[in-house]
Amino acid sequence: MHVDTMEKPGKGTEGLLGWLSWSLLAVGILAVVAYAAAWEQPRVLPRHGEVPAFELDDQEGVKVSRESLRGKVWVGTFMFTSCRNACPGMAAELLKIQKTIRNEGGLAGKLRLVSFSLDPARDTPLQLAQYSSQQGIDSGCWSFLRGGRGEIIRLCEQGFTLSAGGSQGAGAEAGVLHSDRFALVDAKGIIRGYYRPSSVPGDLEKLLDAARVLIEENQQE
Questions:
Q1: Which uninterrupted H or E stretch holds 76?
Q2: How many whole angstroms separate alpha carbon 195 and alpha carbon 203?
Q3: Fewer CB in a 10 Å sphere around the end CB: N or C, the chain?
Q4: pTM (whole model) above 0.85
């Protein structure tokens, strides 16, 4: 007669297995809770410095200043209407943002676009108005500003720490290369991020996501 000599698990073994099962379950629950807490934690964007004070005329002759933009999140860019290098791509991305602002209720009236002309000699009020009309720029959410050349260059290079691309003598005909970065500014006038949607895939979505974070941040204060 065959006798099965294999021992059945004792109480000690069963207890150990049970303890291990409960431990693994507890670790799993803690991991889920920690992940959920991290997901719900508000995203904090870096601070790159405050935009210097300015007051410039837009394409409709309306004064726009740092103070008049307080309370709104905005995207700052430096470009000019006759630019043939970076500007066409930048304008195309800005028009996408403008469309998003129109279509997304949470952005309307809370996110603005502000472009500063690097060639104010050629970008006269009439030229800015014509360019805005040709491009389909909505002055309700996108301001194209002009002022003194020196003031704009200082604002670009010292205020936003972006390259203005060279002297006025190079002019639009030479296709001056300047920074294509978009600066995201919060409701207090602090630069919170730089993006290059016209040259870096995915940066447009990152910029819009960050803008939503800043809008929510402003609403909670």
A1: strand 73-79
A2: 6
A3: N
A4: no
Q: Can you give the residue ranges of every domain in the chain?
A: 10-41, 55-220
**Is 112 in a helix, a strand, or coil?**
strand
Q: Which CATH architecture has domain 55-220?
A: 3-Layer(aba) Sandwich (3.40)
SS3 for 199? coil
- State the amino acid at position 50 in one-letter form: E
CA distance 118 to 24: 62
Type of residue numbered 192 = R
Give the torsion through C-alpha atoms of 211, 213, 215, 216, to 10 deg.
Answer: 170
Rounded Cα gap, residues 17 and 216, in angstroms:
48
Q: List the pLDDT tens digit at each of the 221 positions of the chain.
A: 554 554 455 555 666 666 666 666 666 566 554 444 444 455 789 999 999 999 999 999 999 999 999 999 999 999 999 998 899 999 999 999 999 999 998 899 999 999 999 999 999 999 999 999 999 999 999 999 999 999 999 999 999 999 997 644 444 444 567 999 999 999 999 999 999 999 999 999 999 999 999 999 988 87
| Among candidate residues 188, 191, 186, 189, the one with its CA nearest the CA of residue 161 | 191
Measure the CA–CA gap between 66 and 116, rounded to whole angstroms.
Answer: 13
Q: Return left, alpha or beta for 161; rule: phi > 0 is left, psi -120 to 50 is alpha, else beta.
A: left
The encoded tokens of residue 60 equal 């409709």
